[in-house]
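ok so for the tutorial part 2 we go from a plain amino acid sequence to predicted structure tokens. step 1 is just haveing the sequence, like this:
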Amino acid sequence: MQTLLNDFRYGLRILVRNPGFALAAVICLGLGIGATTAIFSVVNAVLLRPLPYVQPQRLVKIYSEFGKFPGGGLRRFWVSPPEYLDLKRETKSWESLDGWVNGGANLTGQSQPVRATASFITGGLLKSLGVSPILGRTITPEDDDPKSNAVANISYGLWQRVFGGRRDIVGKEVQLNGKSTVIIGVMPKEFSFPPGEVDPPEVWTALQLDPAKPGGRGSHFLYLLGRLQPHVSPQQAQAEMESLVKYWGETGSAKEHHFSPDNHTIVSYPFQSEVVSNVRPALLMLMGAVCFVLLIACVNVANLLLARAESRQREIAVRTAIGASSWRLLRQFIAEGILLSLMGAVLGLGLAFTGLYIIKLTNAGSIPRASEIGIDSTVLLVALLVSIFTGVIFGLAPLLHLAVKNVHGLLKDAAGATSGSAAAQNFRRGLVAFEIFGAMVLLICCGLMVRAFWKLQEVDIGVNPHGVATMRVTLPSAVYSDNQKIESLWSRLYERVNRLPGVQSAALVSGLAPARRVNANDTDIEGFVPRKDGPMQNVDFYQSVSSGYFETMGIRLIEGRFFNASDAKGAPDVIIVNQTMARTFWGNESPLGRRVRPGSTDPWCTVVGVVADVKNAGIDKPTGTELYLPYNQPQGAGNPGMYVVMRGKSDSLDLAMAVRRELSDLDPTVPVSNVRSMDDVLAAAQSRPRFLTLLLTVFSGVALALALVGIYGVLSYLVARRSREFGLRMALGAPRQHVLGLVLKQGAGLALAGVFFGWIAALGITRLMSSVLYGVRAVDPVTFIVMPLALASVAMLASYVPARRATKVDPMVALRYE
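step 2 — the prediction. this is what the tokens look like for a chain of 818 residues:
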């Protein structure tokens, strides 16, 4: 141990005597270790760390699926309440089986009404998670009885924000959606369910399903969470449900909605994998990218140590001559490598803390479980192991000299050699070629992401977002219990907001593009003849709107007319369809005058217009079929929640304040929430590809900088070591251009070797990126041509500076030395 400490002390003295070398090595390692630590922190929190519930490996998420729907079917779909009750009653694999649906809730009883995200849960769900509240108790199955009083658990954040952290909150009565509700508990600060939501719930209240009146079997809106029995595997539970589906399919009536193996099935997946499934490929891609950055940083440090070793040849020779064994020298170099690496780790951890802060700041919902990201003991241990491992690896590089020379050769070379051994030089060049290789792979991946993000910006979303403010208004269901009250308030609000100063036009709409939840409503199409493998009489999106909506949002009219003030209650029932719906059900014929029965109930509605497609399921998703209904006609009436959209010159916040004042005059218990400009709404929809593109661009830039520093450093070192040779060449008549070309040729060889092999590797690696690319192939020709040319050009530019320096050598100095 004492000998090892002596090695570290001696290594530290060497580094102190060479501050420039030490600083360069520590910065390279700090960048590599910092980037790796930051991204591993994200991967650890999101993918590796178990969900913060009791025995989370036994939790399984359950969906229904409709395999025969067009476009590949409806996958990971909701379950209807009657289906949930059937599964709960018939299945034996679950220790508990619960359901939930997320929504919003108006919370009143304080000075100002508050709009909070809420999760409506069955009574055993919180108990199944095994999380205890910090105050009070959780919702129980007894609270889920429709005859019981309404109760709620609230989040720690809502407790602090709305109730000031009062300890007497338990038992307090508030109005939740206009219904008297008792707060029975406060959940822990770190608690979140369902996890991974962009807007996590702050209130959990009992769903209170009535088994006697559970609703229609086709009304799908529940997510299900099952906790497996202790000795039941997920595969066994899935097999049991498939057996039940087969039985129900054989015994169910053809006239009723029921499970069946050929169309309506049940699937289940581990809960944790479902939480992170959308982001897993992207995070693994980023982890691979930072590993390349770390390798390139290590290669740079190995090159620095090789150069230092050549300048220490006399020291190595003397120590070997007086009896130092190869193992003794090996241990010394490894100690110096570990010392450098640990110093780089300290800088890297500082960069990692900064990087994580930026990641959280720019996340915008891109990464689920982002609140759990941090540098914990696991991350610190991994950072330490990475540091030691890299220190050992690049610490071995200087021993190449010991492998290729004996003591006599070292002493002779140390006396007057002008360059290192051929093996050492070739090894150094190979390291630089590897740096170019890694940078090439990262630059191509980055180029694909940038191209895909650029394509995403070019997508026509169907609206003109500039100058449009949006906000959400939701009416409490207990107060607004019938369509007449709902329609009355919407009509009065619509009139008031259109009279606000600075508002050019305003409208109401039930759903806001471009990230809406699919409706998938059965819809009768008059005269439609179903055909095998053709479309079903089902529409992806229903939209309830006021007149002026299309004009306010800048949606183009393709055929017919928009809604107007005459399309009201008592007037003929009308609808407007989008282009995709028109093509799907009427082909090349005009749909104007055709009739549709929304929800397969009376009355029939006449198509009076066709409008341009609007991206609703996501900017990167295909446009679905969509129909628009006047909010004040029977088929579009009764929506308790609407968005107010306004086009004007005023700021979104100013308009929101004005709407809040008008709404307060109409009903002071109704809050305004989700105040955003339409530009912000679209930016949020693009947050994940923007986030990934930004990070990959940063990592690629760091890798490129390190690779260029590597090629510049190697050629500069080569020029310095061969300056006498170049001087002699010019003294003997070689033109300066010849010397320039000699150095550039070496730089070009390194660059082309790295670019070529990196290009070949990228052909295979980029295929793994297909799931995160939009509108761009994984082997996009533009990217695979432009990036190699750009990297080769920049590498040659980095080679030019030392090459020019070689031509400045004074031939007379070289001759005088000889």
